[in-house]
Amino acid sequence: MAAGLTTPLIPLFIVFYLKSNVEYVGIITSGASLASVPALIFWGNLSDKIKKRKIFILIGFLGSFFSLLMVIFVHDIPEYMLMLILFQIIAMASVPVSTLLILENSDKTLWSKVMGKFNSFSAIGTVLGLGAGVTILELFSGEGTIILPYLYVISSFVYLIAGIFSFIILKEPNKTINRKKLGFMYTLHVIERVRYFPTHILHIPGEAKKVKIPDYLKKYLITTLILMLGFQLFLTPYPVFVIKKFNASENDIYIMYLLNSLFSALTFMPAGKYINFTGSNKLLSYSVSLRIVLFIFIGIISFFVYDTINFLVLFIVVYGIFGAIWSFIGISQITSISNMCEATTRGKIIGYYNSLNGVGQIIGSGLSGFIAFDISYSIDFILAAFIVLSGLLLIIKTKPPDIMPVKKVTAS
User: Fold this and answer.
1) pLDDT of 273-324, one tens digit each?
2) Whole-angstrom distance, CA of residue 240 vs CA of residue 20
3) Which CATH superfamily is domain 2-397 in?
4) C-beta of residue 131 within 8 angstroms of C-beta of residue 1
5) How many CB atoms lie under 10 A from the CB of residue 405?
6) pTM reported for the whole predicted model
7) What radius of gyration do the chain's Cα atoms show?
8) What residue ranges do the domains of the chain occupy?
């Protein structure tokens, strides 16, 4: 809920509260995400070293409470950047251990079931947080931009409540799982977020061993970076474009993000079932193709749109559709990669997948602001479409040998 409440705030805070531009939206989105990379490594290694989990959940939640409260001292871009970097570094303490704590407190035969529940609660919490943001902005619509810092403050207290409940309810596991043996790496929490990964785990990885990755799988993994780079190049400046072009309000942007997360959550389970009938690679190609069409469509009409309620509604709904498409892309992409590798190396390969996705997110977000601000939003959108198209062509060209698929794909 706390994360959902703050998800749309970077573009809103920069444009409305700090009176800055899309260039800084890209820089800050990318910079804050980049800060989480060493933090994830540090907290994960420290957790393995001292063999404790609960303390890192508490550090993540309570640290998020204190770091987000610093918003009351933020008056310019450098101060905002510092606050978000501090938040990312401390908040990441809970990420490497959250899944492990659940798995270590459960019998191995129940892992899929308990992770399924974790998935559902995470998705519901995100949507509820965004819904709370919409409600708060509607109730205080007359207060102007001064309400935006208070959304961070409210989110910080939600983290505090989560920390208190964690202290009371959570218990240290009797067994520990070595992350290095699993070969499983954890994805970054940034705006397309590999949306519910790692909370959505398709395959519990076994012990990893050193292997040579075949060329066809290397190419397929590289496409994950290319696709995510293109996605972020488009999605990062999109809210600012809607604000600038259609005079969208803070509430309009929250509704846009709410639809995106809601559509993604609603379509994730159907995507997991549909993939069994179409095949993961074919579903991935169809889903990416649909995004390319929409990217080009938005890029072209953005030259001609003007400030009307009809265009505003169109752009809000399209952003929601992107969330639905992402469910099909995310589940088909990771399933294709999983089907291409042996069971003993699957965890390691999925770790590479997560890492490359994170790199694509950081690069795409960072470049997007410069292109949108210094050239134009329309060119940025069309360029994103062509980058994604290059990734799709690489997917189609890569023809891996027939490998026995995983028995059944589920959204858990």
Assistant:
1) 888 788 888 899 999 999 999 999 999 999 999 999 999 999 999 999 999 9
2) 11
3) MFS general substrate transporter like domains (1.20.1250.20)
4) no
5) 15
6) 0.87
7) 21
8) 2-397
